[in-house]
């Protein structure tokens, strides 16, 4: 085992190497005595030395390697040799296992107590030590110490308690304390696993011979398959009890919510149950109530757009709409706007279904259609409550839209959401719902459209040289040469769970209505409205905003092209006059792909080059061709 012991005290060594001065050491020791922290951490906090300097110095003094664990592929069975509780306590991680030898990475190898404790815990192995940044260790614990094994173990125990040969009795199992304890442990493990990896949704889906538990992370589902399908009724029963749902009703969908604490975080859970072929499917949306104050700067919205939006929402009256598909972050944007307007001098009322985040000083009303408490009913009452600002969760029908628009004309600022593809079609959607054009033109001030794109992992992203077909497609989107722009691609590493992406960022477009657009709405001229909207100085389509992020290295061109594909497909699906032939893939391949203009690479002029392209590249080229063709046909 590598012996870890400094020849002198750390402070004396740092002074001797002239990394810090005697005066700085004296101040650090004084601060350490008052705070109770470690000397190294105190020196870093005071700014006398950087973490990089300190760890490099310790690496040289102790003759141990300085590791970047984000670039390592660490198997979970290796990590589990040191229990999580001890790993977190001593800031340690087993990063390598070879025969009887283990390599343990420590954030503070000079801590002799931690070294001795780990040596005793792993006394059966020959140990080598390394040094690692503490900032890398903490997120690594959440990624590597997953609850998968616990979930599987509790699932097996639950299956033993609920034999398939026995008929499931809800009244017996409600009163069975031992069964309840196992179910609680199982669900706690599922929730802990979801919170650790930052999942937004949990899906519990029974199949004929398997139970699928899927977690949505950064918009993509990650699946865990269990064979213990017999435990589904017990899980559903427990979740229904927690959400105050009818445990005897299995034929109809139900919605509810409950709150729980996971890893010292208050999590609000929205539950939706639905009868399916092999039982009941449960989907749970996780909302972290400890996420802090919402801020527009944290959404990814450009600074100039934030300034314009702030000016719009602080007007005394009018309507501002946020539009986008489900899960695009509309609620987050609205809450961020509300947090800036939430002042003692303003009365704010929200009408939501459901209330997602509870905010102080704001009157939040939950829609309940079962008793007739719908959006329209609540809105009419809200207007008699002397509000300054109204937030309507969603414009769902003509009555709600008209009440909201009239409220915006009578001295109130109204914020709401609508499901449309982009900002331009938002006003047209209100007309389709039956709202009069003159009312829309008089009340609507602006529309924010948004999507979410995945952010590249900063630890593993690498530069990407554009293929000629990709460059042609991107220049078609940008309507100008790309110049010397640099792009990056996803790779995958330990930090991002080998997906190449970590987190998401919002892509926005803001449309402010001017006199020409309002006049077109009053005359019920949607085509003229769309033309005038595209002429406005500050209007910048969603896909161009995504392309800006790609140029900055925040996202990949795959995400940009996927967004462009979604928008063009949405546009075509909403066009009633579009012919079926236009969407025929075979027609697209013959008439578009095999042309030099579509591929931008003179493929038709040099067919033998196709032999050098593998199947994956061909599918990618076809996808690019589809996007370009759609852009050509839409005139963008």
Protein architecture, described:
The chain is an alpha/beta fold. It contains 26 helices and 18 strands. It has a seven-stranded mixed sheet, with helices on both faces. A six-stranded antiparallel sheet has the order 6-5-4-9-8-7. A three-stranded mixed sheet has the order 1-2-3. Helix 9 packs antiparallel against helix 11, helix 15 packs parallel to helix 16 and helix 22 runs antiparallel to helix 23. The longest helix is centred in the N-terminal third of the chain and has 20 residues. It is globular, with a radius of gyration of 29 Å. About 8% of the residues have low confidence.
- Strand fraction: 15-25%
Which radius of gyration do the C-alpha atoms yield?
A: 29 Å
Mean pLDDT: 82
Q: Which strand order do you get reading across the main beta sheet?
A: 12-11-13-14-10-15-18
- The best one-word shape is globular
Question: What is the oligomeric state here?
Answer: single chain
Structure classification: alpha/beta
**Contiguous runs where pLDDT drops below 50 for at least 5 residues:** 165-175, 573-615
**N-end to C-end Cα span:** 66 Å
**What is the overall number of helices?**
26
The number of strands is 18
- Sheet of most strands: 7 strands, mixed
């Amino acid at each position: 085992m590598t012996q870890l012991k400094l020849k002198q005290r750390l402070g004396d060594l740092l002074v001797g190497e002239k990394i810090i001065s005697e005066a700085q050491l004296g101040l650090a020791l004084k601060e350490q005595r008052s705070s109770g922290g470690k000397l190294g951490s105190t020196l870093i906090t005071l700014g006398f030395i950087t973490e990089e300097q300190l760890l490099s110095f310790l690496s040289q003094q102790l003759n141990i390697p300085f590791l970047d664990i984000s670039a390592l592929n660490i198997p979970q069975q290796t990590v589990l040799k040191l229990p999580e509780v001890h790993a977190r306590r001593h800031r340690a991680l087993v990063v390598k296992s070879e025969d009887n030898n283990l390599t343990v990475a420590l954030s503070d190898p000079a801590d002799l107590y931690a070294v001795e404790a780990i040596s005793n815990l792993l006394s059966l192995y020959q140990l080598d030590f390394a040094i690692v940044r503490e900032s890398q260790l903490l997120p690594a614990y959440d990624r590597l110490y997953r609850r998968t094994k616990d979930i599987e173990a509790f699932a097996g125990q639950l299956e033993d308690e609920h034999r398939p040969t026995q008929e499931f009795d809800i009244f017996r199992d409600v009163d069975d304390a031992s069964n309840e304890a196992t179910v609680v442990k199982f669900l706690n493990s599922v929730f802990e696993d979801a919170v650790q990896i930052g999942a937004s949704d949990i899906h519990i889906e029974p199949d004929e011979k398997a139970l699928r538990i899927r977690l949505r992370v950064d918009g993509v589902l990650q699946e865990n398959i269990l064979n213990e399908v017999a435990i589904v009724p017990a899980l559903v029963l427990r979740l229904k009890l927690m959400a105050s749902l009818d445990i005897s009703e299995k034929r109809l969908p139900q919605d509810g919510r409950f709150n729980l604490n996971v890893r010292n975080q208050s999590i609000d859970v929205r539950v939706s149950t639905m009868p399916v072929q092999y039982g009941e499917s449960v989907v749970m949306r996780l909302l972290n109530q400890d996420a802090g104050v919402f801020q527009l700067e944290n959404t990814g919205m450009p600074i100039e757009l934030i300034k314009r939006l702030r000016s719009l929402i602080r007007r005394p009256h009018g309507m501002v709409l946020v539009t986008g598909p489900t899960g695009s972050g509309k609620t987050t944007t609205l809450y961020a706007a509300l947090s800036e307007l939430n002042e003692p001098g303003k009365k704010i009322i929200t009408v939501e279904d459901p209330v997602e985040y509870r905010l102080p000083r704001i009157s939040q009303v939950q829609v309940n259609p079962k008793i007739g408490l719908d959006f329209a009913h609540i809105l009419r009452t809200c207007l008699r409550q002397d509000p300054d600002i109204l937030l309507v969760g969603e414009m769902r029908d003509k009555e709600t839209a008209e009440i909201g628009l009239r409220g915006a004309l009578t001295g109130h600022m109204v914020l709401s959401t609508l499901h449309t593809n982009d900002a331009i079609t938002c006003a047209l959607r209100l007309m389709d719902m039956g709202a009069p054009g003159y009312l829309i033109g008089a009340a609507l001030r602006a529309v924010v459209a948004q999507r979410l794109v995945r952010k590249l992992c900063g630890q593993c992203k690498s530069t990407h040289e554009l293929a000629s077909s990709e460059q042609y497609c991107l220049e078609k989107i940008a309507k100008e040469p790309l110049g010397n722009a640099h792009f990056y691609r996803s790779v995958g590493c330990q930090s991002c769970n080998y997906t190449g992406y970590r987190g998401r960022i919002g892509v926005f477009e803001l449309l402010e209505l001017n006199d020409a657009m309002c006049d077109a709405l009053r005359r019920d001229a949607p085509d003229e409205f769309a033309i005038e909207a595209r002429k406005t100085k500050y209007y910048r389509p969603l896909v161009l905003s995504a392309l800006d992020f790609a140029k900055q290295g925040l996202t990949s061109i795959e995400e940009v092209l996927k967004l462009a594909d979604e928008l063009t497909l949405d546009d075509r699906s909403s066009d009633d006059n579009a012919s079926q032939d236009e969407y025929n893939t075979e027609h697209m391949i013959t008439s578009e792909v095999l042309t030099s203009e579509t591929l931008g690479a003179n493929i038709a002029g040099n067919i033998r080059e196709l032999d050098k392209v593998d199947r994956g590249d061909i599918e990618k080229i076809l996808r690019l061709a589809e996007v370009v063709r759609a852009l050509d046909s839409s005139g963008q």
